[in-house]
Amino acid sequence: MYIYLNGQVLSKEEAKISPYDHGFMYGIGAFETFRTYDGFPFLIDEHMKRLQEALIELNIQAALNTDHVIEAAQALLEKNNLDDAYFRLNVSAGDGDIGLQTTPYEDPTVILFTKPLPKPGASAKELVVLNTVRNTPEGRQRLKSHHYLNSILGKRELKDPVGQEGIFLTEQGFLSEGTVSNLFWVKANVLYTPAVSTGILNGITRKWVLHATEKMNIPSETGNYKRNELHDADEVILTNSIQELIPVNRFEHKTLPGADGPFFQKLKAMYREDTINRRRSI
């Protein structure tokens, strides 16, 4: 498999980074995951905007060009003989001395990883409340950074990682997010999702869903909610940029419609249409 590293396309065996990279030593780095449709990264502008905001928070100075990222992704598709793929754009701090650094990082390490898209898993998932509590963000908001132990601990609890997704509660017992997903539910034709203030990552697909429901004239609300809200839900849906929209078919004692849910079906159709329209506009 070939990857992009600091301007070069290299085999993964050739790619090397310094052990003094503060992304490795202290976790100072951020990333975005996205996928392509017919060779074009979906929602790439939104991903790049969020990444740039994270880099500012981490004090990493990186001049990232969206067009260049698109070109690099397409070069990797060709080099790896893939029609479409999973991508991770990673920016770590770069070299530094041993010890915590407060001055800006001016020479970051930029890597674009790729791999084949995962094979479709279960058509719907069971939602499981985790014993592991969602930790609070280390800064003012959660970044898509190198700090993923909390999610790993949560995922270890799942008996069936393919057919299940774990949902974290906050210390106060509020619903937050999944190990790799944002959470939505529909009740009486209103869409609900936990607020960013619960410490969740403001997912790119999460933002797409909220915008899509506006276009569908479906009201939406964000806030602090307890797990019993899901017992009264008509539909529950999970989102992330690789798996897209994932319907939930069971939560604790409640059976849910899964992929047969009318809201899920409308949202899925709109998502597919948007991937096509954005490809045409590029």
Give a structural overview:
Helix 5 links the parallel strand 11 (190-194) and strand 12 (220-223). The protein has 2 domains: 2-115, 2-Layer Sandwich (D-amino Acid Aminotransferase, Chain A, domain 1); 125-278, D-amino Acid Aminotransferase, subunit A, domain 2 (D-amino Acid Aminotransferase, Chain A, domain 2). The longest helix has 20 residues, at 262-281. Strands 7, 8, 9, 10, 11, 12, 13, 14 and 15 form a 9-stranded mixed β-sheet that branches. It has helices at 22-25, 44-58, 66-79, 149-156, 204-215, 228-231, 262-281; strands spanning 2-5, 8-11, 29-37, 40-41, 86-92, 109-115, 125-133, 164-169, 175-178, 182-187, 190-194, 220-223, 235-240, 244-251, 254-255. It is of the alpha+beta class and 282 residues long. The mean pLDDT is 95.
Give a quick precis of the structure.
The protein is an alpha+beta fold and 282 residues long.
Number of strands: 15
Q: Helical stretch count?
A: 7
Summed over residues and divided by their number, the pLDDT gives a mean of: 95
Low-confidence stretches: none
Shape: globular
User: How many structural domains does the protein architecture include?
Assistant: 2
CATH class of the largest domain: Alpha Beta
Which structural class best describes the helix and strand composition?
Answer: alpha+beta
CATH superfamily of the largest domain: D-amino Acid Aminotransferase, subunit A, domain 2
CATH topology of the largest domain: D-amino Acid Aminotransferase, Chain A, domain 2
Q: Give the % helix.
A: 25-40%
Strand content: 25-35%
**What gyration radius follows from the Cα positions, in whole Å?**
19 Å
Reported CATH architecture of the largest domain: Alpha-Beta Barrel
N-to-C order of helices and strands: EEHEEHHEEEHEEEEHEHEEEH
